[in-house]
Amino acid sequence: MLTHDQALSLLQAAREESTTLGVPMSFAVMDPSGHLVALIRMDGAPWISADVAQGKAWTAAAYGAPSAAQKAKMEPMPNFASAITTMTGGKFTPQTGAVPVYSDGTLLGALGGSGGTGQQDEDVCAAAVAACGYSLS
Q1: Separation between Cα atoms, residue 127 and residue 129, nearest integer Å
Q2: How far, CA to CA in Å, does 113 sit from each of 68, 76, 87?
Q3: Of the candidates 95, 105, 102, 19, which has an alpha carbon nearest to the alpha carbon of residue 58?
Q4: What residue ranges do the domains of the chain occupy?
Q5: Rounded Cα–Cα distance for residues 91 and 119 (Å)
Q6: Which contiguous run of DSSP H or E holds residue 131?
Q7: Nearest CA-CA partner of 113 in 35, 24, 43, 2
């Protein structure tokens, strides 16, 4: 599981990547059980992006895979996706923008972003994970 300091390092790396891109975002770090460890909303990021980043990170942590994988899986099954979202109290967010955080093959948690396009969110998160010395699998 990620420590609070490790989560803050991921947030800082994501913030730096987002600043380089010129797109203010929100970022959430979840533990492997989908509990929030740390959250940041950059100046200028949409207010709702903090909630969306948490949902994306929760989804990546739940499946140990990028949230984009659930987006692709759920596209032909919108009713099922809605049912899972309802069953999880709105946490399941099958949209591109979050990645798992692994170390030596162990899932430590997930980092989710929101504020740019889904692909920008995911690219920034993936770069932050790499910058902190972790992997996506």
Answers
A1: 5
A2: 12, 24, 23
A3: 95
A4: 4-131
A5: 20
A6: helix 118-131
A7: 24
Q: Provide the pLDDT for residue 32.
A: 97
pLDDT over 70 percentage in the chain: 100
Q: How far is 81 from 70, CA to CA, in rounded Å?
A: 9
Show the tokens assigned to 8. Answer: 């803050």
64: Cα separation from own chain's centroid: 11
Which amino acid is present at 65? Answer: A
Dist CA 27 CA 48 (whole Å): 12
- Entry pTM: 0.96
- The distance in angstroms from the start CA to the end CA of the chain is 15
Residue closest to 50 by CA, chosen among 29, 77, 31, 34: 29
Answer CATH for 4-131 from 3.40.50.40, 3.40.50.1820, 3.10.450.540, 3.30.450.150:
3.30.450.150
At 48-71, the pLDDT tens digits run: 999 999 999 999 999 999 999 999
**Which residue, chain included where needed, has tokens 């909303």?**
41
Residue 129 confidence class, pLDDT cut points 50, 70, 90: very high
